[in-house]
Design a protein that fits this description.
alpha/beta, 7-stranded mixed sheet
Length: 328
């Protein structure tokens, strides 16, 4: 099956340079912990696929490590791929591909990582976003708030199972798959309480722009793994799961001190905000700056505000012996 990037992904993230400048990287101690769980920490020349590598926020961290990993950075967005290639990272091959169809040989890599900065759909094809950000179409029904028509447009009715099968195909037996997200308070699940009032206001704005694209904050991303064990009269699943359950999961809090202008640029780099124009975009900007300039907002002597959030990471292991699909 052939997949294409959604119109919103292509349009909203055409400026890869701006995205690379304003989106955050990951704390080194968290990266270290994730790589340990993926059993590649301290393993020289381990082979890792960075799936949906974007402009290389996570790829850079892999390339800089002492293990001298060989990294294949898979990215479908042409401008993102160009920005990553321009960095000329050591032992990194930048290739075009999707979560459902990578140019990687079967059983050839030790670990696969999907590092989504804020879970933006531009970084990964709509296919991978659906798989990783959490959309699972059990019994071919949609979850509340997501229309089947919007999913059909991206071919994502088949994305979840196909993506897991492709990841399993390229991993060595017993290889590992990890995911990591930077989740700012304003882009978090509804049940997570923001640290400050101004971040709560930004979260209200974010949640008001529901574009029917599933993301980490919608809390559905585990379903695709749990679905491995489900069976109903309408869906027949393989008896043996491809990946071990339950998933390992951990998180760490972060605080980034940023100038209000930088916070705004970071906020507007999110896909559902990046596509806004004219008066609508100006209105959102006014609300964000009004929230950040309230009298009770803490700032340091540089005029920077504390941006709060969590780095969430999870991992699982490919179950040896499960059947895999042919090809690549």
């Amino acid at each position: 099956m052939v997949y294409e990037l959604s119109h919103q992904a292509c349009k909203g993230f055409r400026n890869a340079s701006s995205y690379d400048t304003h989106r955050p990287s990951y704390p080194l101690e968290v990266v270290d912990a994730l790589l340990a769980q993926l059993q590649v920490k301290g393993v020289p020349n381990a082979r890792i696929v960075d799936l949906g590598a974007g402009t290389g926020k996570f790829t850079e961290l892999l390339a800089a490590r002492d293990e001298k990993y060989h990294v294949v950075a898979v990215e479908p967005h042409e401008e993102m791929r160009k920005a990553l290639s321009a960095k000329k990272l050591s032992a990194v091959d930048v290739v075009d591909g999707y979560a459902t169809n990578t140019p990687v040989e079967s059983q050839s890599v030790d670990a696969v990582v999907a590092a989504q900065v804020g879970s933006s759909q531009c970084i990964i094809a709509a296919v991978l976003e659906v798989m990783v950000s959490g959309f699972s179409l059990v019994n071919q029904t949609t979850s509340p708030g997501f229309s089947s028509s919007s999913l059909d447009a991206d071919g994502t009715r088949f994305a979840t199972d196909d993506a897991l099968e492709e990841i399993y195909r390229i991993l060595i037996p017993g290889g590992t798959f990890g995911m990591i997200w930077n989740v700012e308070d304003y882009n978090a699940p509804e049940s997570w309480e923001p640290t400050t009032k101004w971040e709560a206001t930004m979260k209200e704005i974010m949640w008001s722009y529901h574009d029917q694209r599933p993301r980490f904050r919608h809390g559905l991303w585990r379903n695709v793994f749990d679905k491995q064990l489900s069976s109903t009269p309408f869906t027949i699943q393989a008896a043996d799961p491809l990946f071990s359950l339950p998933l390992g999961e951990n998180s760490a809090k972060f605080i980034h001190w940023l100038h209000p202008d930088a916070i705004w640029e970071r906020f507007r780099s999110l896909s559902q905000i990046s596509v806004l124009k004219g008066d609508e975009l100006a209105g959102v900007k006014d609300k964000v700056f009004a929230a950040m300039s309230a009298s009770n907002v803490e700032a340091n002597d540089k005029g920077e505000l504390p941006l709060h959030g969590h780095v969430v990471y999870t991992w699982t292991t490919a179950v040896p012996g499960a059947p895999i699909k042919e090809g690549g």
